[in-house]
Write a structure and sequence with these properties.
With 151 residues, this protein is of the alpha+beta class. 48% of the residues lie in helices and 19% in strands. Strands 1-2-3-5-4 form a five-stranded antiparallel sheet, sandwiched between helices.
Length: 151
């Protein structure tokens, strides 16, 4: 009987942690990206990308939900919010984003060297199956907004 209760409690906890936020709630990917775009200070205007456009920069896992914004190209400012199918996909996506940032850094060193610091201080967060990137000089606000959504 104790094993059965333990198994049921373990299953319930696993299901509760399965959402993007890890607290039983599922993060609204579009709302988080929109809040970042509205509340964080960006130097350049930010343009919303479709998931297909984001797929030009990152290989999204099948079934992933994504929302993203990018600057007009005069800065390295970006927002990416991606909810994967599970935490192992999210871990792989986090690694892919780190590679993307390294590539961006190499590119900016050649063309916009003043943007390198912004990329080096980018806010990258992962919780559960959700990965969030915000490249901005306003990292404090970005961290606050992300924490509000991810917990």
């Amino acid at each position: 009987m104790k094993r059965l209760i333990s198994l049921v409690l373990t299953l319930a906890l696993t299901l509760a942690l399965a959402g993007c936020g890890g607290s039983g709630k599922t993060v609204d990917v579009a709302a988080l990206a929109s809040d970042l775009a509205e509340k964080v200070t960006f130097e350049a205007p930010m343009k919303e990308l479709t998931a297909e456009q984001l797929g030009n920069y990152l290989a999204l896992p099948e079934g992933a939900e994504a929302a993203a914004y990018m600057s007009n190209g005069t800065t390295a400012e970006e927002i990416m919010v991606i909810r994967c199918g599970d935490s192992s996909e999210a871990s792989a996506m986090e690694a892919a984003i780190k590679n993307f940032l390294a590539d961006q850094r190499a590119e900016m060193e050649r063309y916009l060297p003043e943007e390198v610091a912004r990329l080096e201080n980018a806010v990258l967060a992962r919780k559960g199956s959700c990965v969030v990137l915000c490249v901005t000089a306003d990292t404090g606000t970005a961290e606050t907004v992300i924490k509000e959504h991810l917990g």
